[in-house]
Amino acid sequence: MQRYLASCHCGNVKFAFCTQVDELVMCNCSLCTRRNAMMLTVRRDALQILSGEDSLTLYQWNTHAARHYFCTRCGVYTFHQRRIDPEVYGVNAFCVEGLDVAALPVRKMDGRSR
Ligand SMILES: [Zn+2]
């Protein structure tokens, strides 16, 4: 597994995680569609916030089970704790340093009907 560094746009929020990146996840739920999210799957215990935790705010909707975080200064979605499995986070692939997003296969997730 490789260690990755990631940040929001303004740089307030910095985080790191270890995972095996094989694919991007694209979800068709109403939130992921609007935020144009392409995500990586990261285990909760493999993700570490390095700085700017106080800049993150929480957005919850519908069942309020998932925890969606974004930076209060620049508005960028960083990651979220999944509804179906709280031990797993979805991470915004475009926040990750040095990741060739365009080279990865995309797996479609049907979040709209689950
Ligand atoms: Zn920011």
How does this structure look, described?
- The chain is mainly beta and 114 residues long.
- It has one domain (2-109): Metal Binding Protein, Guanine Nucleotide Exchange Factor, Chain A.
- It contains one helix and ten strands.
- The protein has one helix at 30-35; strands spanning 2-7, 14-19, 24-27, 39-43, 47-51, 56-59, 67-71, 77-81, 88-92, 106-109.
- The strands form three sheets. A five-stranded antiparallel beta sheet has the order 4-9-8-7-6, with no helix packed on it.
- A hairpin with a 5-residue loop joins strand 7 (67-71) and strand 8.
- The N and C termini lie far apart (30 Å).
- It binds zinc ion.
- Zinc ion is lined by residues 8-10, 12-13, 71, 73-74, 76.
